[in-house]
């Protein structure tokens, strides 16, 4: 793998990431056309239903694409979806070499795009900066292969592992930089999920407020088995471009359900599980609505249910340099917990970042 290949692929990955939070349910993809060591075309996929990255880059290159190398972060598609197959455009443009970072996990493509290019006599190199490409599209990889949303759990605790005082005061444990970062996460993921307890206690708006403005609001999902969310709650009456979904169980008070619907919320009835709502079924339902990722902003009970159900893929765990104390002050993960240490959930591929005074531990759950 040459230095040039890595350099141009890095450029394509940076282009792809420009559309972070904007391409769902499609992947982020970037492409660069290089001829005689010069970039003659570049582009990225801006949102679902619009042209793919390769098309933008090839259009910009025009005639110069003939005999050039195309760098693309995802294997070119060969199917007719919302747009036509990119392999045909690549072949027509007479590109002589294609370098891809990762094969497309979409079962409709899955290696067939690369095969089509090879069949047309184009040299193909794949696997350049593959792990970076996979990480960039970790949400897409899970969603397109399982139709389930990628679950990200975010929490903020003190150094002694508390998310509130003994009286329940929780605003704010972390500082402004960490709280601003959370808005970037809301901008990035499709949905945000909390329990009705959090709505009743804190009345969060769950919208995205970026310092520069222009963020995307996530779909707001409230676990509320008995439809207790008050009509005065911000999740109901604070304007958002995205809907609010109140998740109940069968038998929730019908007049409350109707009132929430009349106030503009969607009510999704999901079977009851061991402890409230069956979260595995809920995730399937959200996946069917093309919600590819969910940011769980918990409450101890909700976090506990997701952790116990082994439903979390990634965590953002903020730690504030404060000590709260109090035996009865809650920690981030409620529920019955575990008895044996060997059953603890392990987190791997840790990345530590400073966020103002706070620390953010980002990592991935180890699957059983
Ligand atoms: C993208 N952007 O730059 C590339 C994609 O519905 P369609 O027609 O847009 O096709 C979406 C599929 O195309 C997607 O799941 C992936 O497999 C493939 N490649 N998609 O949205 C792109 N290159
Ligand atoms: Zn395509």
Description:
- The chain is of the alpha/beta class and 368 residues long.
- Helix content is 29%, strand content 24%.
- The chain has 12 helices and 16 strands.
- A 9-stranded mixed beta sheet has the order 10-9-8-7-13-6-14-16-15. It has a 5-stranded mixed beta sheet with strand order 2-1-3-4-5, sandwiched between helices. Strands 11-12 form a two-stranded antiparallel ribbon.
- A hairpin with a 2-residue loop joins strand 15 and strand 16.
- The longest helix has 15 residues, at 3-17.
- The protein starts with a helix and ends with a strand.
- The model has no long low-confidence stretch (mean pLDDT 95).
- Ligand AOF binds at residues 26-27, 29, 45, 48, 52-53, 74, 77, 81-83, 86, 104, 106, 109, 144.
- Zn(2+) binds at residues 52, 77, 86.
- Pfam families: dCMP_cyt_deam_1, RibD_C.
- Pathway: Cofactor biosynthesis; riboflavin biosynthesis; 5-amino-6-(D-ribitylamino)uracil from GTP: step 2/4; Cofactor biosynthesis; riboflavin biosynthesis; 5-amino-6-(D-ribitylamino)uracil from GTP: step 3/4.
């Amino acid at each position: 793998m040459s230095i040039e290949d890595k350099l141009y692929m890095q450029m394509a990955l940076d282009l792809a990431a420009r559309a972070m939070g904007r391409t769902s349910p499609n992947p982020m993809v970037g492409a660069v056309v290089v001829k005689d060591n010069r970039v003659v075309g570049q582009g990225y996929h801006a949102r679902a239903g619009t042209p793919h990255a390769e098309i933008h880059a090839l259009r910009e290159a025009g005639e110069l694409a003939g005999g050039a190398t195309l760098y693309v972060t995802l294997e070119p598609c060969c199917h007719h979806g919302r747009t036509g197959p990119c392999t045909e455009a690549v072949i027509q443009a007479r590109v002589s070499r294609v370098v891809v970072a990762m094969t497309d996990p979409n079962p409709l493509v899955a290696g067939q795009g690369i095969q089509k290019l090879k069949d047309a006599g184009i040299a193909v190199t794949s696997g350049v900066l593959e792990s970076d490409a996979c990480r960039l599209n970790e949400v897409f990889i899970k969603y397109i292969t399982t139709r389930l949303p990628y679950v990200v759990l975010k929490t903020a605790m003190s150094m002694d592992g508390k998310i509130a005082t003994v009286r329940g005061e929780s605003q704010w444990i972390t500082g402004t930089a960490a709280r601003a970062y959370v808005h970037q996460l809301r901008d990035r993921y499709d949905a945000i999920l909390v329990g009705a307890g959090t709505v009743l206690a804190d009345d969060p708006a769950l919208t995205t407020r970026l310092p520069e403005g222009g963020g995307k609001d996530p779909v707001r999902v409230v676990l509320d088995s008995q439809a207790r969310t008050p009509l005065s709650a911000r999740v109901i009456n604070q304007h958002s471009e995205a809907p609010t979904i109140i998740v109940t169980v069968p038998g929730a008070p019908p007049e409350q359900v109707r009132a929430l619907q009349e106030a503009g919320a969607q009510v999704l009835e999901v079977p009851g599980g061991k402890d409230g709502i069956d979260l595995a079924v809920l995730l399937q339902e959200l996946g069917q609505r093309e919600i590819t990722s969910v940011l769980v902003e918990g409450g101890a009970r909700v976090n506990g249910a997701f952790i116990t159900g082994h439903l979390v893929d990634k965590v953002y765990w903020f730690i504030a340099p404060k000590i709260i104390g109090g035996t009865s002050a809650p920690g981030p993960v409620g529920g019955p917990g575990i008895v044996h240490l060997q059953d603890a959930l392990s987190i791997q591929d840790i990345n530590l970042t400073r966020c103002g005074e706070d620390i953010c531990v980002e990592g991935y759950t180890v699957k059983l």
